[in-house]
């Protein structure tokens, strides 16, 4: 055959060489990402990435907060199961915790911890790359991250009694056993970690604590940690600092007239936008199909697996309105029709939990509040009361400070506010004339009772019961209240639950 | 050229060394001997005249006389002679000391040991294969109605399980060679089409449940010349070789003259055999039972359903009092047709092949259809004697119209047709007169979609564009060295469009109607380059060395959008949905994979008597971490042709006897589970801000799953190739099987993957065929048998509380545990029904409720505590067959030919989800006639439990009640064809044929069809969610060769 072309074999050799060269031309040749994911190197570049990661660190709480609220309500005296409840809710209600129950899985909180550690491990690298991230920003972001991580740990130890301490960044599965810290040791550890990031507004330049949805108020958290270990003086200092001088926006959280009487329920409508009341909120983005499961479980026209206890309903009913001149209509601004509802107006109407159904604009995407002003004010009242300032505590509980109110000596500066009961137009709770019992415990009882109504179904009740029962060394403080859900002493179930709860070791959930 | 010279010198030295050590007996011969022999035709024994006989080394040749005899002088009695006669398979024969030989030649219309097979490195003769291989030729599937080649492999390849997903035309086939080799990785083989890797596993996403698009449709079945299935020894494919290879070659021009071919067929698929369902009377009785089982009672029956007792004046009388056979309503016989045109031409410089095909097959219900257009162009350009270029391009455009075929009964017409009560009507009836109106009826009180509404008004379209092109350049330096490189692109784009209407369909999650769009894009660019050295010495040493590299970059991307609640069913496009954004969803993904592999292979044989093949590759891919990225994969195989030894080579009955043994290591890089080896962040959006968070604890040590296989086999051919037997036994094991671990919650991320398991598969596979010729009648019989068993040898769990891996799929649970098969069905055992409360006393059922009369008697396996709970679950079935294969037979007489293929599968178990839906008796849906024997207070020995709304006792939980034996024996295909004699100048050949498919099925399975696969995903093996069954069909076709 005649030769028709001058193409030589070298052409092929060159082609092959080019292909070979392609294989080794770049270090990143094999670094192909599988899907929509990014590496830590891509993730931590700018201050914007830091904010995105901070938001990301609290994302596991979208899964966790509904679980916490159900655990809290069913273990305490706030929620009961209906006939539609599934086996898991029934078991929690009966104080029975098998490891297959998904509601006792605490991994979401550890995810928060691991994500926070991830940010702390990379934050200095961002500062090197982004000149906008100066020492000031670096400091407050670290403070916010440590605050969030501390809140997660604090919640873990209050649920499980101990926590696996994760030191540093978990980039691979740790070999060997994890280190578990007890509740007391963990609280001390957290206090030591948070304290360097707390600043008093009166001292020069104030660090703004990040208050975008999700992040706990670090000062309030520190106060709460002190309260948990019965260090009342420090508790008052930090709780007051958190609501009286909130960063540069001094006295923003003052329980003012924003949510007075029938506006009270608006706290739960578009919660993440309400900066004067809500400090930490877990948002559910309706536009992204993120569904808050609580309305499904609670609403009467949905699955209706749980309902409010009669005890709670009775508590609301027992309140006396100031407006109606004490005509005994109950807590109309917070109780029936707001916190809970009834399937119909008849006597036999079935009660159901309404709090997560108030926000009609975003069906099934109601935000969940972690911490808000009323919560902190009542904790502050509790700490003041234990510091010997019962009168100031009652002011916060009832009508609030006004210009004429007497101030406690140590913490002389106070902003005026409406008070928790004042905001709901309720008759104040005062010490009965000639009361001979323990005044401190009486006021404390008032405060805890107020918390069960003001903060119903917000995941606070069980922790309150444990804290007070521990403080007083009286497990019956908790056992009596919870067992009351099952009848009266002498009833088989009441007795069984009561006996179980008299052992504080049973207050901790098993680690799954 | 100095370098090349030294290279070949080195090789020659090596060969010389081997020659000295093995071939010494050949020395010292001085006088030229001669060899005598007779050549006959295999099968008939007729002598063959004018057969060319030549000596390979000297070129001396002769021809046979009219008695088939010849005499030829040879340099020595170890020489290799070549026997060749056009129309017969050419043979190369070593004398091995013989002075007299008899050789039988097999007509090239039959499969023979002398056929060649193709592999990714080149081609070779089947007779000399060291590793197990099976070949198929065009004749094996030329009369089939199959829409792509994967559908015709069932039973024909020993060791390969092939299950067509459904009877929907165009549906693809699940293919698995020698068992499961990974829990999360790919189970299907690598497909080569004309030298290009054509990935067909990526396309698993779809908007339609139970639908996978079929990338195999890129090649028209009529364009295929041969298919080779390689089961072992694939180490030259390294990390891609674990699941075997299917090598498809399309037809190239062989003839010198121009060839024009045209073929077409038309036919029909028949409706399936119907399931026995309740008639209106029985259904009404059932309905009352069901109503009465509800507590608290929903109200007074007569008030709720006034039309029920025949009150014609009640408003809904006509809506709820009908007698409809829903299976008759939706199933319709379907028309099938295909056209294919083929042109080959060119000269000795350039040749071309052009073929086009058009295919249109309807599905078994209205508006289901598959149409496809194929175009193929290839050729060969010989630029010089040494340099040639082979371009190759294929294009396919396929449209599928079909609704969902998944477990969601409300959108699967097959399930809806089973569950919709017969008292309903497909079309609305006038409330006053009862006249049938022209529009479909809405759902009514039964909460079942109107099947006619689904088939008429729901839209499910997949439009698939596939393009595969490559160019292969080859330069032959000399008789020893050849360099070749192939560059190619594989591109696939699929667009899906769905619409689920409001009218007639059940509302789910506040959605009335829903449009959706899906775009899927796959792109693979590849380069395969290699250099080959071949040498054959006069003393009988043959060496082929091959080395080179492969490069492949795949990217896969999809975008999916779903909208809800358009203003009316007339608005069917995205963007017409509700103003509430949260009802819309858009998702997508984008992945890439890079693979580079350096490989080398050496094939050596001595006088076709002793064979050694070794190959190795060193490759890296982007799937795993850099520490574990590069791996070596070696394999070695040896074969010994015992029939060439002097003690056997005189035996006239023995044609060939060869023993084979091999060991190989291969890898499986195709798995997204390797994502867990890297630390990464994912994003979730809240308030228009994307938040980043970690989702895993990475396992930096996660390494590529590697499979080791030991194979032993023999090939036997006796009686002049009229009886051939191939037998292989193997054991493969994956010692670093990736297992999903469940970590303690204190690690935050509970899912973790590590190489913590060991999986082994043992198997035996055999095939045999025989031919008998008596006069003008020729009869063939063949068959295959495969038995393989995969089992978990070991799993090590990090968390001491974890004992096994449980996977939940819709309606069922699967278990993977030590000592057991992979993904076995896991549930309760049952033992009938409690006849009375007394019998059931004290038993707590699986839902924690006390069991009563009429509830299922679950077996309390563990504890004897009369409590049925998780602990009482056990393995209740294995979806993999104990053995499977085929039988084939053919008979030809003059110009008539009849051929039949039977396939069988024995011991595979099926979860009959359709029957579960039709026997659960937990709702107002229609049920199977078997529920007539349910427990009632007057039928206390009923075989089935009582009707109970919502199934409070848990009678219908996943249990052995729903597991059935799926064994079957099926007449898969029967063809009769007649070839007209050639009419010179008008046509070269015309063949007319009739083919029947699935004409007879023997099975105990009670569903529509025991032969189906839900998805190409081993987790769904044997789970019958109600796919379109494979039914009887007939085609009449004609093939013209002009």
How many strands in all of chain A? 8
> Assembly type of the shown chains?
heterodimer
The low-pLDDT segments of chain B are 1-6, 16-29
The coarse silhouette of chain B is globular
Strand content of chain A: 5-15%
**Tally of individual helices of chain A:** 19
Please write the string of helix (H) and strand (E) elements of chain A. HHHHEHHHEEHHHEHEHEEEHHHHHHH
- Which fold does the CATH topology of one domain in chain A refer to? Serine Threonine Protein Phosphatase 5, Tetratricopeptide repeat
Q: Which chains share the greatest interface?
A: A-B, 70 and 71 residues
C-alpha end-to-end distance of chain A: 79 Å
Rg of chain B, rounded, reads: 32 Å
| Count of DSSP strands of chain B | 51
Q: Percent range for helical residues of chain A?
A: 40-55%
Helical coverage of chain B, percent range: under 10%
Q: What is the distance, rounded to the nearest whole angstrom, between the alpha carbons of the first and last residues of chain B?
A: 50 Å
The low-confidence parts of chain A are 1-5, 201-214
Helix/strand structural class of chain A: mainly alpha
Q: What's the helix count of chain B?
A: 9
**Major beta sheet of chain B, specifics?**
22 strands, antiparallel, barrel
How do you describe this structure in short?
The complex is a heterodimer of chains A (512) and B (1042). With 512 residues, chain A is mainly alpha-helical. Chain A has helices spanning 9-24, 40-43, 47-57, 60-75, 87-93, 107-129, 135-160, 183-194, 218-228, 232-244, 293-298, 310-317, 373-386, 390-397, 420-423, 439-454, 461-472, 476-483, 492-501; strands spanning 79-81, 162-165, 179-182, 278-282, 306-308, 340-342, 351-353, 368-372.
């Amino acid at each position: 055959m005649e030769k028709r072309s001058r193409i030589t074999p070298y052409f092929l050799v060159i082609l092959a060489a080019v292909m070979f060269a392609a294989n080794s031309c770049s270090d990143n040749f094999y670094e192909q990402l599988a899907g929509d994911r990014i590496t830590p190197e891509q993730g931590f570049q700018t201050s914007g990435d830091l904010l995105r990661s901070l938001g990301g660190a609290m994302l596991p709480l979208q899964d966790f907060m509904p679980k916490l609220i159900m655990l809290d309500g069913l273990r305490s005296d706030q929620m009961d199961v209906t006939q539609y409840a599934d086996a898991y809710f029934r078991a929690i209600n009966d104080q029975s915790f098998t490891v297959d129950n998904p509601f006792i899985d605490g991994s979401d909180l550890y995810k928060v911890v691991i994500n926070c550690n991830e940010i702390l491990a990379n934050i200095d690298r961002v500062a090197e790359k982004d000149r906008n991230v100066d020492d000031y920003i670096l400091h407050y972001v670290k403070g916010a991250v440590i605050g969030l991580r501390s809140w997660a740990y604090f919640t873990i130890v209050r649920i499980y009694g101990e926590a696996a301490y994760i030191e540093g960044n978990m980039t691979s599965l740790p070999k060997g056993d994890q280190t578990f810290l007890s509740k007391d040791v963990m609280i001390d550890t957290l206090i030591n970690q948070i304290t360097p990031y707390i600043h008093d507004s009166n001292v020069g330049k104030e660090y703004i604590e990040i208050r975008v949805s999700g992040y706990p108020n670090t000062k309030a958290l520190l106060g709460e940690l002190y309260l948990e270990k019965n260090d009342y003086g420090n508790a008052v200092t930090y709780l007051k600092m958190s609501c009286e001088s909130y960063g540069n926006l001094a006295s923003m959280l003052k329980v003012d007239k924003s949510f007075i009487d029938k506006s009270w329920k608006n706290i739960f409508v578009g919660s993440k936008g309400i900066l004067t009341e809500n400090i930490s909120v877990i948002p559910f983005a309706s536009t992204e199909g993120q569904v808050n499961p609580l309305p499904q479980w609670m609403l009467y026209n949905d699955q209706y697996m749980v309902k409010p206890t009669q005890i709670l309903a009775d508590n609301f009913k027992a309140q006396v309105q100031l407006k109606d001149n004490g005509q005994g209509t109950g807590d109309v601004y917070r109780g029936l029709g707001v916190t809970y509802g009834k399937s119909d107006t008849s006597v036999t109407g079935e009660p159901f939990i309404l709090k997560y159904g108030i926000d009609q604009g975003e069906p099934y995407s109601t935000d969940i509040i972690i911490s808000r002003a009323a919560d902190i004010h009542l904790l502050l009242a509790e700490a003041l009361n234990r510091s010997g300032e019962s009168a100031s505590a009652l002011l916060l509980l009832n009508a609030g400070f006004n210009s004429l109110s007497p101030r406690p000596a140590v913490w002389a500066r106070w902003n005026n506010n409406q008070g928790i009961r004042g905001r709901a137009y309720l008759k104040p709770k005062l010490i009965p004339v000639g009361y001979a019992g323990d005044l401190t415990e009486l006021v404390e009882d008032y405060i805890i009772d107020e918390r069960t109504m003001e903060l119903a179904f917000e995941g606070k009740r069980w922790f309150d019961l444990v804290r007070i029962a521990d403080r007083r060394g009286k497990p019956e403080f908790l056992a009596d209240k919870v067992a009351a859900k099952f009848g009266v002493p002498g009833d088989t179930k009441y007795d069984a639950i009561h006996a179980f709860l008299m052992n504080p070791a049973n207050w901790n959930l098993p680690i799954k | 050229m100095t370098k090349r010279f030294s290279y070949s010198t080195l090789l020659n030295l090596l060969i010389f060394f081997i020659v000295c050590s093995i071939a010494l007996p050949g020395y010292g011969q001085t006088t030229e001997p001669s060899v005598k022999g007779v050549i006959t035709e295999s099968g008939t024994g007729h002598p063959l005249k004018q057969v060319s006989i030549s000596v390979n080394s000297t070129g001396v040749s002769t021809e046979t006389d009219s008695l088939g005899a010849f005499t030829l002088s040879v340099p020595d009695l170890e020489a290799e002679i070549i026997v060749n006669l056009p129309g017969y398979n050419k043979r190369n024969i070593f004398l091995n000391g013989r002075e007299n030989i008899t050789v039988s030649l097999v007509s090239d219309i039959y499969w023979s040991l002398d056929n060649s097979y193709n592999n990714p490195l080149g081609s070779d003769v089947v007779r000399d294969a060291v590793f197990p291989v099976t070949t198929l030729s065009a004749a094996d599937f030329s009369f089939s109605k199959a829409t792509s080649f994967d559908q015709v492999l069932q039973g024909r390849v020993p060791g390969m399980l092939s299950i067509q997903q459904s009877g929907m035309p165009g549906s693809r086939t699940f293919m698995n060679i020698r068992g499961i080799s990974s829990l999360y990785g790919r189970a299907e083989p690598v497909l080569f089409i004309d030298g290009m890797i054509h990935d067909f596993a990526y396309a698993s996403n779809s908007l339609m449940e139970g639908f996978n698009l079929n990338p195999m449709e890129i090649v028209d079945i009529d364009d295929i010349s041969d298919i080779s299935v390689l089961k072992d020894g694939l180490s030259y494919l390294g990390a891609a070789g674990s699941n075997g290879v299917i090598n498809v070659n399309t037809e190239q021009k062989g003839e010198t003259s121009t060839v024009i071919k045209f073929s077409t067929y038309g036919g029909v698929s028949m409706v399936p055999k119907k399931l026995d369902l309740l008639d209106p009377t029985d259904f009404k009785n059932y309905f009352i039972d069901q109503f009465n089982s509800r507590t608290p009672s929903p109200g007074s029956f007569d008030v709720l359903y006034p039309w029920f007792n025949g009150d014609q004046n009640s408003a809904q009388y006509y809506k709820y009092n009908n007698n409809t056979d829903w299976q008759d309503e939706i199933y319709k016989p379907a028309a099938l047709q295909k056209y294919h045109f083929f042109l080959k031409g060119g000269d000795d410089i350039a040749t071309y092949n052009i073929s086009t095909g058009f295919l249109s097959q309807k599905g078994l219900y209205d508006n289901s259809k598959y149409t496809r257009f194929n175009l193929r162009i290839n050729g060969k350009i010989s630029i010089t004697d040494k340099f040639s270029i082979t371009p190759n391009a294929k294009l396919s455009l396929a449209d599928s119209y079909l609704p969902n075929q998944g477990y969601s009964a409300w959108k699967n017409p097959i399930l809806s047709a089973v569950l919709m009560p017969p008292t309903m009507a497909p079309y609305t009836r006038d409330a006053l007169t009862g006249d049938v109106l022209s529009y479909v009826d809405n759902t009514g009180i039964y909460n079942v979609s109107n099947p006619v509404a689904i088939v008429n008004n729901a839209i499910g379209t997949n439009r698939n564009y596939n393009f595969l092109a490559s160019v292969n350049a080859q330069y032959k330096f000399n008789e020893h060295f050849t360099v070749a490189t192939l560059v190619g692109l594989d591109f696939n784009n699929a667009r899906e469009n769905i619409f689920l209407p409001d009218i007639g369909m059940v509302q789910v999650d506040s959605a009335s109607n829903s449009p959706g769009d899906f775009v899927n894009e796959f792109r693979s660019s590849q380069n395969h380059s290699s250099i080959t050295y071949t040498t054959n010495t006069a003393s009988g040493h043959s060496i082929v060395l091959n080395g080179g590299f492969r490069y492949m970059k795949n990217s896969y991307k999809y975008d999916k959008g779903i909208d809800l609640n358009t203003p009316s069913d007339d608005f069917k496009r995205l963007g017409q949905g509700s103003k509430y954004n949260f009802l819309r969803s858009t998702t997508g993904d984008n992945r890439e994979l890079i693979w580079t592999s350096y490989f080398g292979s050496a094939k050596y044989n001595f006088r076709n008597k002793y064979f050694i093949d070794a190959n190795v590759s060193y490759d890296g891919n982007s799937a795993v971490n850099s520490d574990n990225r590069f791996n070596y994969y070696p394999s070695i195989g040896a074969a010994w042709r015992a029939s060439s030894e002097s003690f056997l080579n005189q035996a006239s009955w023995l044609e060939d006897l060869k023993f084979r043994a091999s060991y190989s290591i291969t890898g499986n890089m195709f798995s997204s589970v390797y994502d867990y080896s890297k630390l990464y962040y994912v994003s979730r959006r809240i308030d228009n801000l994307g938040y980043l968070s970690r989702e895993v604890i990475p396992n930096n040590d996660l390494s590529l799953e590697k499979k080791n296989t030991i194979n032993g086999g023999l090939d036997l051919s006796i009686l002049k190739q009229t009886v051939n037997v191939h037998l292989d036994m193997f054991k493969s094991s994956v010692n670093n099987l990736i297992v999903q671990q469940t970590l303690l919650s204190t690690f935050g991320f509970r899912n973790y993957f590590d190489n913590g398991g060991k999986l082994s598969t043992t198997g035996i596979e055999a095939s045999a065929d025989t031919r008998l010729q008596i006069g003008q009648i020729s009869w063939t019989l063949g068959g295959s048998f495969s038995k393989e068993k995969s089992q978990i040898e070991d799993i090590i769990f990090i968390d001491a509380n974890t004992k096994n891996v449980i996977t939940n799929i819709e309606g069922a649970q699967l278990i993977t545990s030590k000592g057991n098969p992979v993904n076995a069905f896991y549930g309760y055992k049952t033992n009938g029904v409690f006849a009375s409360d007394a019998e059931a006393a004290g038993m707590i059922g699986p839902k924690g409720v006390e069991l009563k009369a009429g509830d299922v008697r679950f077996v309390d396996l563990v504890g004897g505590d009369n409590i049925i709970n998780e602990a009482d679950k056990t393995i209740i079935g294995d979806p993999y067959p104990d053995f499977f294969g085929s039988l084939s037979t053919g008979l030809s007489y003059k110009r008539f030919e009849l051929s039949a293929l039977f396939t069988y599968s024995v011991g595979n178990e099926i979860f009959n989800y359709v029957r579960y839906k039709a026997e659960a008796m937990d709702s107002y849906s229609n049920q199977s006639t078997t529920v007539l024997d349910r427990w009632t207070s007057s039928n206390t020995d009923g075989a089935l439990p009582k009707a109970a709304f919502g199934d409070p006792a848990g009678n219908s939980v996943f249990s052995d009640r729903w597991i059935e034996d799926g064994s079957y024996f099926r007449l898969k295909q029967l063809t009769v064809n007649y070839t007209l004699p050639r009419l010179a100048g008008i046509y070269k050949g015309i063949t007319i044929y009739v083919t029947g498919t699935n004409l007879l099925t023997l099975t105990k399975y009670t569903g529509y069809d025991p032969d189906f696969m839900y998805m190409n995903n081993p987790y769904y093996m044997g789970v019958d969610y109600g796919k379109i069954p494979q039914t009887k069909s007939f085609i009449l076709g004609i093939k013209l060769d002009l």
